[in-house]
Amino acid sequence: MPAGNVLGVFTVSTVNVNGMRAAAKKGFVEWLAASGSDVILCQEVRAEAGQLPKDVVAPAGWHAHHAPSAVKGRNGVSVYSRAEPSEVRVGFGEAEFEDSGRYLEVHLPGVIVASLYLPSGDVGTPRQDEKERFMAAFLPYLIELRGKAEAAGCEVVVGGDWNIAHAEIDLKNWKGNQKNSGFLPEERAWMSRVFGEAGYVDVQRKLDPEGPGPYTWWSYRGKAFDNDAGWRIDYLVTTPGLAEKCTSVVVERAASYELRWSDHAPVTATFDFSPE
């Protein structure tokens, strides 16, 4: 567990890049270079380090860690941090998912930060079964992680694409999606357990409990982006102590459809540990 405390202002961003090779050509590199965040979490990288440009694999000013999937062209998560981690962990101890490119955790002074890409699922298929197995194994780990962090006097942030809209205010067309993966009653109940039984906090909803949105993903089909017919499935989830320090959460929605470099938007949260 990391020693020391988070000091001053601490900022974390998360984004599903929907294929890093394409995102790097369309604007991710420029976004990364302009970011003021202390940590950036990426999901759905879908590439190994050798397939990516140097300014993505090891950009100046960052300590970059990547966890690709054993299945080429699938999944993949990354963490970029300004400070060098004291420990880096790939996976969360469940054999089936250790090399699936779905979880990467770094230990920084006073805080553990993890990038999560939860399976998307598809009702009535093996993909949904995989999602359910992942959820069943991941919840106990979240509980264990929070307990260890509390014992060490540090906080936790798990950010990423959770692939579940928790409540009706988290997607535009909730009535038409009640039988679809991502908004199934059992998936929503599992998210409630993350925020209840496991004791984590959805910092977006802490600051903006009413909604609707702000959405973080829009289909490329039709006019979903132009009509803001999206889903909020990208979350920054923290331990309660860190949530109390959250001063803002911003969804960095592109100004227009043409300026998007992913079908997701980055989500950035700021935490202020400055002395009062």
TrEMBL record:
Mg(2+) binds at N16, E44, D161, N163, D263, H264. SUPFAM superfamilies: DNase I-like. The record marks N163 as: Transition state stabilizer. Residues 14-264 form the Endonuclease/exonuclease/phosphatase domain. Keywords: Hydrolase, Magnesium, Manganese, Metal-binding. One of its GO terms (biological process) is DNA repair. Pfam families: Exo_endo_phos. Its cofactor is Mg(2+); Mn(2+). The active site is at Y117, D161 (proton donor/acceptor), H264 (proton acceptor). The record marks D234 as: Important for catalytic activity. One of its GO terms (molecular function) is double-stranded DNA 3'-5' DNA exonuclease activity. The keyword Metal-binding applies. Probably binds two magnesium or manganese ions per subunit. The keyword Magnesium applies. InterPro entries: AP_endonuc_1, Endo/exonu/phosph_ase_sf, Endo/exonuclease/phosphatase, ExoIII-like. The record marks H264 as: Interaction with DNA substrate. Belongs to the DNA repair enzymes AP/ExoA family. This is Exodeoxyribonuclease III. The gene is xthA.
